[in-house]
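To close the chapter, one final illustration. This time we ask the reader to focus less on the individual chains and more on the assembly as a whole: which components sit near each other, and how the overall shape emerges from the parts.
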Amino acid sequence: MLAEARAGRSALLIAPTGAGKTLAGFLPSLAALAEDPRPGLHTLYVSPLKALATDIARNLTRPVAEMGLPIAIETRTGDTDAATRRRQREAPPQILLTTPESLAVMLSMEDAGRTFAGLSTIVVDEIHALAGTKRGDQLALGLSRLATLSPAARRVGLSATVPHRAPLVAFLSADGRGGDVAIVEAPEGAAPDITVRLPDGPLPWSGHMGLLAAPAIYDLIRSAGTAIVFVNTRAQAELVFQALWRLNDDALPIALHHGSLAREQRAKVEAAMAEGRLKAVVATSSLDLGIDWGDVDLVIQVGAPKGVSRLMQRIGRANHRWDEPSRAILVPANRFEVLECRCAVAGVAARDLDGDPPPPGGLDVLAQHILGVVCSGPIHPDDLYAEVTRAAPYADLLRQDFDDVVRFVEDGGYALAAYERYRKLFRDAEGRLHVANARVARQHRMNIGTIVEAPLLKVKLGRGFGGHVLGEIEEYFVSMLQPGDTFMFAGRLLRFERLHETMVECSPGKGDDPKVPAYAGGRLPLTTSLADRVRALLQDPAQWHDLPEDVAEWLRLQKSRSRLPGRNDLLVETFPRGGRWFLVAYCFEGRNAHQTLGMLLTRRMERAGFGPLGFVATDYVVAVWSAHQPTRVADLFGEDMLGDDLEEWMAESSMLRRTFRNVAVIAGLVDRHHPGSEKSRRQVTVNTDLIYDVLRKHEPDHVLLRATQADAARGLVDVGRVAALLKRAKGRVVHMALSRVSPLAVPVLLEVGKESVAGAGEDALLAEAEEAALVAEALGEAEPPPAPVHPVHRANAARDRHRPSGHALGTQGRATLRTIRGRRQGELPLPE
Amino acid sequence: MTAASIHIAGERLMLDPEGVLWWPARRLLAVADLHLEKGSSLAARGALVPPYDSRATLDRLLPLVRRYKPERLVALGDSFHDRHGAARLAREDAARIAALAQSVELIWVLGNHDPAPPEGLPGVTTEALREGPLTFLHDATGRPGEISGHLHPKAAIATRGKWVSRACFVADARRVLLPAFGAYTGGLDVRDQAIRALFPRGGRAFLLGRGRLYSFTLAELREAEPA
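The assembled structure is written out below.
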């Protein structure tokens, strides 16, 4: 590291977590500053986490002070007050620790050139977590700007082990193509010690929560020093936490940590963890990255890990001494997850990291960056284009796309040139771009950032002015609550009192049937490479010998009743059940791609006259049920599905609308949603769904719609994986027409009604609801009867009747109510 | 296209699923909250949203006028998003409105967003239009026989699978509240106090759908009501 520094070369340091790489990244800077403690900004450190920046500042300050070095070390984050920020720009410390967002704000200031002029080193921490995300795009653009302002600065990237290192090298390089970056690689740490713990009793067929294993998890926690219990969703975190406390006769200090809890609450848990006061913390991906806790000696993953890289990242949170094995235990919740866990363990042993190479940079982020650069001072578009293409995610950006984005920033970039007088930028005689006025710059700086939250409401325990805020939940979930309803949040049972302005006021709850807020997009889909491993395992009975007997028997039955999904074919089963026909496709492309596929399949089946009634998607399969027998099944999976069907569906898809909203906010088309000023803002904002409709109709080729489609290729819509599947399946669809449900199809059929997204259009649903209300009225019932429920829903109908509206609720990528039943819930101890 | 028929003060009125009200006996068509030029109004404040909202709104309104062939078209206020909206209309949009006035009497009811007559456009301007037992005005006062807009009612209903939210008419035997018609107009939930207060004895919401309305009593919609 020091050698590369003396040579003035940029370097990517790749090391497993716990190898002390952050300190290694700073060593050259400390050495240089000790020799020559010149004033001015010397080293800039950028981390994806505010907490990490703060923690590292603390860890650096102490030794520096003890050595008596005159080096100023400060942080600059969203929490830094205005006076400090101003002072930092005028008289910067020698070492400044910050985040991509705060860096972007600093770069948009008129004095950015002066602030960063003497910069010698830029350290980018956890670079693997940033590359390929919109925050990463923003940082890459920021680095290319810094290369212009301070060309002498070398870059140091710190990364965990990754499957694709070329994109990281490119990300770090000054030319955006990987030139002049040395790779420094730490030796691999000891192989982790991973085991799979099955729940006691027969293996469940379905379900993802893993609550049956709570006693086993509790015993594991009791026998460990300090444990992190990782789960996959916030809802699961609430449930597992609650299940553990129900068993917690020893009153072990077990805490809860997820992204919706109030910041202070999370900070409290993190502090308690750092001080070793906790026995365990139940956490979501909110703890995937973060401060090292040396004392954690066990990681428990409840539910399927979904990806090898992700599992390794989580396992790395235990035992940060890299030469000793980390200890981890996987707790699958159902049969498919047993297969997935088994494959993930093999994947970790083979160090077979997964993850897609980063996609090209987002045009929305580029729009934000361009405005920021112009806010800092005039610049010619040619120079800006050259600078931007030196950022790796934009290395292949077409000039046409760049110009379209510039035009968007200038005046909206519409074919109808209506906004001449509202331009945000103007061009001088030499063609340089200037910001139109100070208000534009001010507004821009307030809206910098690429993280867009769904509309959230604060949850408060207590009424009126008193009480304290526990965290935030999605507005959508609140809209489904009635006063008196109870729900689980922050590990407490709360009773919904009222919605007061933007506060959800609650009191401590009691009762038997609480709901659990679930969140959109909380679940990561199964990765392609882990899916491949699962497929390979299914295909090869020789590997089944060490599977639990339940599971092996299940697979043997499948083999004799139907067949096993092959590695390169697409198995599709059809069978009648309960007066309906089912079509189950074993695609293994992850839940998001399956959701999209399910939408498209139901459209085609509708046209083919099969009368589709609904579908359900899991990480492994998609199942559609219909009134008539589906025939010519291979034709349903034709590649042309991505033509008109996709186009039509995109017009009304709520997920596409959400994608557009994020793009519109990041690109600066609309300001961020600020709950709390709802009423007065109604007149100055417009719902992005309405903009989406108007823009699609009148200017379908607009740059923001192009950005939306690029995003739809992955993430929640994941069209990319659907396309890959259809290509792979071409000519290889194996259709098994069965007389009854196959063993492998049982888990997904049990999901029907629990997780289902109705295939019917909104109007059909409205008609159904209206009919139900009419029937209720005619029969003179006080409450409308449950909406007509599909035969396979019947198992759930009893449960659904307990719901307030009498209707089954499902998910539409937003929120859902999950009913749980428990005892003694009112007596949960409060977490501290 | 199926319009729903209701009776207020003995008059038969038709609620069209596109969000307009038709009074056959007087050949009068009413539309609320067009909010024309909301796009350019937002642009002036720094949000350069697509400038096609007036065009999109007129694209929906003109076919309705052709279908019903009214003698009078009453715009129930907030026809423009701000008082200078009419002056900002694109030339072709202004021309379409002028052409409309050739065959129909245009009546601009004033609203809080557009408290003055629209500049340069044909038509009559009024605070409220009294016609037989009915009064067409922007914001309801609570007196019977009022046909009004202003509140942008919408309603959400729990269906199998998900909640569906739509703009809607709200009506009882005494009044009708029209949904906002403009392309960029959002909505206020019918459970909001401002709307509930107008329907103390309950009423019915007619949710706009494709080619038809879906009707629910306010009580049904209030099941999940936040306090």
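The two ends of chain A are 42 Å apart (CA to CA). The longest strand of chain A covers residues 492-500. With these observations in hand, you are ready for the problems at the end of the chapter.
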